[in-house]
Amino acid sequence: MVSVEFAGEATMNEVCYVHSGGKKLKSEIIRINGNVADIQVFEMTTGIGVGDDVEFTGELLSVQLGPGLLGQVYDGLQNPLPELAEECGFFLDRGVYFSALNESKKWEFTPSVEVEARVEAGEQIGFVREGIFKHWIMVPFQLEGVLTVKRIVGAGSYTINDTVAEVEDEKGALHPLTMVFNWPVKRAVKSYAERLKPSETLITKLRIIDTFIPVAKGGTYCIPGPFGAGKTVLQQVTSRNAEVDVVIIAACGERAGEVVETLKEFPELIDPKTGRSLMERTVIICNTSSMPVAAREASVYTAVSIAEYYRQMGLNVLLLADSTSRWAQAMREMSGRLEEIPGEEAFPAYLESLIAAFYERAGIVRLKGGEIGSVTIGGTVSPAGGNFEEPVTQATLKVVGAFHGLSRQRSDARKYPAIHPLESWSKYKGIIDEEKTEFGRAILFKGDEVGQMMKVVGEEGTSLDDYIIYLKSDLLDFVYVQQNSFDPVDTAVEPERQQHTYDLLMGILTAELDFAGKEEARSWFNRVRQNFLDYNSKEWKSEEFNKLEATISQLLADKKKGVEADAVGF
Amino acid sequence: MQKVYSKIESIAGNVITVSATGVRNKELAVVETRYGPSLAEVIRLKRDEVALQVFNGGRGVSTSDEVRFMGEPMKVSFSDNLLGRIFNGSGRPRDGGPELTDTMIEIGGPSVNPARRIIPKNMVRTGIPMIDLFNSLVESQKLPIFSVSGEPYNELLARIALQAEVDIIILGGMGLKYDDYLFFKDTLEKGGVLSRTVFFVHTAADPVVESLLVPDIALAVAENFAIHGKRVLVLLTDMTNFADAMKEIAITMEQVPSNRGYPGDLYTQLASRYEKAVDFDGSGSITILGVTTMPGDDVTHPVPDNTGYITEGQFYLRNGRIEPFGSLSRLKQQVNADTRSDHRAIMDGMIKLYASYKESLEKKSMGFKMSDWDEKLLAYGGLFEREMMDLSVNIPLEAALDKGWEILASCFEPEETGLKSELIAQYWTNKV
User: Fold this and answer.
1) CATH number of B77-335
2) What is the ipTM, given to two decimal places?
3) Which of A209, B156, B268, B371 would suit a FRET pair with B233, their CA atoms being 20 to 30 Å apart?
4) Is B200:B91 a contact under the CB 8 Å cutoff?
């Protein structure tokens, strides 16, 4: 952190550059007191000395929005990393900044408005094709009131900096528009007609999530878990399989190696829906743990601003932030340097409101043109010691709509995904009737109770009925809650198949079964389980799939003598 | 152009302040005390008030001692002359040899661009079955050994250093007991690898602050060797001492502590060191093995906890063995597919059986009756611990796999092992 004396005007969150040792180091004002501004430098501060010059830009910290964002890999300040690598080699040198978007590339622009048309901020004036999407060129979100188009260029190819239109505001001032504009990252984009209630399920193709703890388009969820429980793997699987248009990955303060896996694998992976590489729908913002910490705070805002931008085109965007704890820690470091009075565990007192404000930038909205777009935010939390009673987890739980808690016991037992089915919750609607999922959850709950009891009294002391409940819950856990991400079929399950499988499973869970003793019950359940596992790994509706389904139904028919009293009606 | 100041304004713990102008952040200075010169580093600038941490400690520093600013941050010499040499925490020779001054490099340099990293793909063989077979070490991995005081973690590090297939070994010792330092020196000398080893050793007797530089110096040197195409193994022992030294400075500087007195940036500080582990595309690599002692055997202590979030797995060393449970190499999947067709199956299968053995053992200790199956497991568990887990076992991976089949065959029938039939047909060895 650096303090500067200034003459004239300074704005909170204004970007400035520290001139030191022949380099310009990007910084942001975070406190102003009299004529002294405290600025955080987004780079290492080695070599900065008292008396160095600081250049104020008058601009807030902002992100560049325009065609060409998709497929990019940026650092927390939207500096493109591949370009940086070409310039500087292996290392991230200080003070080297590039334009976020390719300025020489020509885009085929097609206008969609005519001269004298009336437009507002966020409305479309034309489009270019960006990969699989129609990338709408919009009136910059910061322009106010109703604007009149005074000039619009014809269809043709233009670079992002060519003027494509001129609009006149209510006061008669003329604004030239290009295909790109800047937006301050810490302000939410509000250029839409209204915000709607998230009601449609966002399909992740993970059974436990879609069925038991669903996420909604425009909703929020968090994944807290101790180290090694599989947070990042879960995020990676979601980023591949989720049914959304655009995925923004904010790798915030985590291992560089994990980003590298995404970086190297995504261009190779084909999105089955579009037939194009997954990278074409992805933007990666990475500020890994060894990159300067001040830029880490900015990185999540950069990511969410890009997400909002694509939402404004009527797309469904999923933002995955891994991990929000590192972001909170970055705030804690800055707060400590500002010598603010600390809150719990030395986190700043405003931690909760900042976390809330970040998650509130998610949402499903109806745009001024009538289309629906959404931003869904999923953040991981890395609680110290794996203990959820810590400020970041608690502040996050207050504002999210779904909680996917990862458990150390489950990951140690190699039960993946290691989401705890009983501790996790969701306020959104899933793909299966709530009554049915409640029934399944109750079985899991009772099975867990019996399992606890069996640890004390042993198998001998447990009644056959209780034992069957325990086996049912074990079966549900094994073949439905758990999912094999290494199996090409099981890794992503379509909602239709999830419903089908769940109904098949419900047949077993609701049945009153006829067993002579525990030994017979166990071996029967083992057979069902084995068949079910094979069934899960077969192509949907293939011959083998149908055969295994028939086997399972036959096994059930052999032993079913009725329906359990509490399950009548299913 | 060196500036000399002879008025120290304040001395608190190991931090001194002087009034000086034209000083830059992280610049190095020399404090001439009556007990000899000491290096010091600028850690805070406030108008003309300069705070420095004194590497030899504040003890014996007098207000009229001279402070001479060097005009540049801490640097260390880098050349092949480093090999076989022993230095202290500030990079000064500890072995009586000449001071090195050629090609000075900066320490604590910038981070590697993620876009230029590659997915690690080479296994580092160590000859220790619990590592090679069950949790393979991968080139460019960063992995700590979680342990408690009294465990033979330094012996383990020394053995890995001796046997690992790497070009250069760099040992960074922080708060190392003098005995342990001599142990490393003797062992590596006897093993004949001293000529490709560099030591940066801070012993427990040295001033605490000096240990703060050890990881940075060691890793800066490692980075340069790696860029020159060498495969480097960096051993850091013990990172908990490093974290404690940071805590001491942070509290002296009146920083707000976050958890058990550690500074709020503990995660960042540890990460910026561990993240130096890298595989340079078309050049060398850095693999980091650290030791993190867990105070009170508590893995939720801030140091092991933060470390676990940073590193790619961990080895638990307990009762002189690498624990199969909890130990994890996150990168093993990258390499264990193409070693031998039975590698993954043996890895999972033997651990599952060992877990069952633990259950049987528990039942036995509670006085339950042992079934035939339990007896088989008990025999298996004993063999497994003696012939696989014991740290003295020293065999290559292939021999360890064969040994695994041998142990299985002497204890079980093929169908009891839960292994795939094709593998059993290929590898099952009949009882002798």
Assistant:
1) 3.40.50.12240
2) 0.84
3) B268
4) yes
